[in-house]
Amino acid sequence: MIIMGDFTNQTDKQNKNVIVWLDFGPLAYLNFGIASALSKIENYNFIGIVSEKRDMSFFENQQKISFQKLLYYPECYIGKSSFDLNDLKKFESNFDLNIWTEIFTERSFYKYWTQFYKFNHDEILTIVYHTISYFVNVLEKNKPELIIMKQVGDNIANLLFYKIAKKLGIKIIMVNESYLMNNIIISDNLVSTEISDEFKKLKTNFKKSSKIYDIEFIKNYDLFDSISILLQDTNFKKSLSQKISFYMKRLSIGTPSIYQNIGKTKFKMLQYRLKNYLEVKKRTKFLDTNSTKSIDNENFFYFPLASEPEARLLARSPFFTNQIALAENIAKSIPINSVLYVKEHPLQKIKFWRPITDYQKLINIPNVKLIHPSTNHHKLLEKCQGVISISGGATFEAIFYKKPIILFSDENYDDLSTVTKVKTFQTLHDDIKDALNNFNFNNDELDAFMQAYDKHTLTLPFDQIRKDAETLSSIQWYVHDYNLTIKEFMKFYKYYETYFELIAKKIYSKL
Question: What are the phi and psi torsion angles at 298 (to 5°)?
Answer without folding.
Answer: -150, 165
